[in-house]
Amino acid sequence: MRITILAAGSRGDITPMLALAVGLRQAGHEVTLAAPRNFEALASAHCVPFHPFQVDVEELVRSDLGRSWLGHSSHSPAREVRLVARLVREWAVPMAEESITLAGTADLYISGVMTVDVTAALVRAGGGAHVQALLAPFHPSRSGAVGLRPPFPSRETAWNHLAGSATAWALGLGFGAPGSAARGSLGLRRGFPRGSIPEFGREYRRALRETPTMVGASEWVVPRPDDWPAWVRTTGYWVLPAQESWVPGPHLTDFLAAGDPPVYVGFGSMSTHDPVGTLRTIVDGLRRAGRRGVVSSGGADLASISSMSALDPDIHLVGEVSHEWLFPRVSGVIHHGGAGTTSGALRAGVPSAVVPHIGDQPYWGRRVAELGVGARPVPRHRLTAAAIGSMIDQMDAADVRRRARDLGQQLRAEQGVAQAVSYVERFG
């Protein structure tokens, strides 16, 4: 079967889709990953054919608008939606218009939450099946355990379902423009004038709601509710095979060997207008807790700060590093709550704590705390050195460590990619 996977976002969004591509190729399918050009080398390293979109994700993350969205909107969901809608119009609409050449080139298309509407347009114009691959639970439910922002997280109630429907509406406002552009370029009828808010809400929500869906998360973490549609399946996490060519640098291995296991602190691709203040908060928090730390430079580009030479010798800065390798070697993980980093920390069996910035990150922070495998989340705009110290204290509790270890064993035993491949093959 010819399969094209349309993926968008940062590395944390692309890597699980690449893991799906690897699994599908191993099952004998012809698979192409269509994604921003920044990830061509990553796909090549795993022998996956690649169709590049010309958008530069790294440039986007470090733009003024990107920094405002990623690093400075956690205090206001309304501001977050406004900023993401502007970003999507700037980079995702051109990407959608590039994608129309893919219509009619595959037997089956796999989309993500940012590409589902565009992919639905491609299928409508050129034929083929369509499966949606989500990294978080976006379908409304009465269950608070699968609600991104439920008013009653520990209960089953219609109010939670209503909140989920409101989230779907916000997603349509944020991610609706690319689908509108693709339909226009493909000559498909629009129900509303191009760019109008009603069109964004209607067409995007329809694709999100009606497309057969697999959720790349474990039922131990995202328990499937009874009121989800029958075509929504939770498969387990989608994890790339380890690259034998990847080896840690000697400075990192020496640092790990020089003392007790450190705490990892990293916020992934989340950029900021204040890298100096961010690094100062992290370092002060680790010092307050009396702990060594491995700090990820990430999208905040902490490595660019000239005062790095003044860091405590108990702080080690890293660039790109394998979470699969590093996380089992640390005492705890403080991170931004991206779906991929969350799953990496959970699978490693170590306690974690989430500092949510945007999107589904507050959900993962809440679930970590609800499962008793980490600390209570602290939104980015409330992060202080004292908050970091408190999170470390919570992660150090013996019962938290035990539950994190047990959950990690359960998650590592799952075969998420194999389950996803089986689901996809039902539609071929």
Give an account of the 3D structure.
By secondary structure, this protein is an alpha/beta fold. It folds into two domains: 251 residues, Glycogen Phosphorylase B (Rossmann fold, 3-Layer(aba) Sandwich), CATH 3.40.50.2000; 147 residues, Rossmann fold (3-Layer(aba) Sandwich), CATH 3.40.50.2000. The strands form two sheets. A seven-stranded parallel sheet has the order 3-2-1-4-5-6-7. It has a five-stranded parallel sheet with strand order 10-9-8-11-12, sandwiched between helices. The radius of gyration is 21 Å and the shape is globular. 51% of the residues are buried.
What layout of secondary structure does this protein have?
Layout: E1 2-6, H1 11-26, E2 30-36, H2 40-45, E3 50-53, H3 57-61, H4 64-71, H5 77-99, E4 108-111, H6 116-126, E5 129-134, H7 158-185, H8 197-210, E6 213-215, E7 232-234, H9 250-257, E8 263-266, H10 275-289, E9 293-296, E10 315-318, H11 323-326, E11 332-335, H12 339-348, E12 352-354, H13 361-370, H14 385-395, H15 398-412, H16 416-425
Parallel strand pairs: 1-2, 1-4, 2-3, 4-5, 5-6, 6-7, 8-9, 8-11, 9-10, 11-12
Helix pairs in contact: 1-16, 4-5, 5-7, 6-7, 7-8, 10-14, 12-15
